[in-house]
Design a protein that fits this description.
The protein is mainly beta. Helices cover 0% and strands 39% of the residues. Strands 1, 2, 3, 4, 5 and 6 form a six-stranded antiparallel β-sheet that branches. A hairpin with a 2-residue loop joins β5 and β6.
């Protein structure tokens, strides 16, 4: 699956469904979010009730877009949505619908 960079039309919001949320460890030398090159430390369905993230934690969110494509977005903040939620995406920002 592709990262959020360079995917789709960056200026238009797209709709989809949250398929997976993974908690991952961010290497100390990792660039800022937006890259999907982090190593996975586990997977699960942590949603908005998860614990607050630390500076070592990032979240990889896999989305199934309404156009049939899949998309992964890395974010540092704990997601405010759960698996199965309808969301809209603009660039690398995910918003609940």
């Amino acid at each position: 699956m592709a990262s959020s960079q360079g995917m789709g039309q960056q200026g238009m919001a797209q709709s989809g469904v949250v398929a997976r949320i993974e908690t991952m460890l961010k290497p100390s030398n990792a660039p800022s979010t937006g890259s999907s090159s982090y190593g996975s430390s586990g997977s699960g369905s942590m949603g908005s009730s998860g614990s607050m993230g630390s500076s070592n934690t990032v979240y990889r969110v896999t989305l199934l877009m309404n156009d049939g494509s899949a998309r992964e977005i890395i974010q540092e903040e704990p997601p405010r949505f759960r698996i199965g939620d309808q969301v809209s995406v603009m660039g690398s920002t995910i918003r609940s619908r």
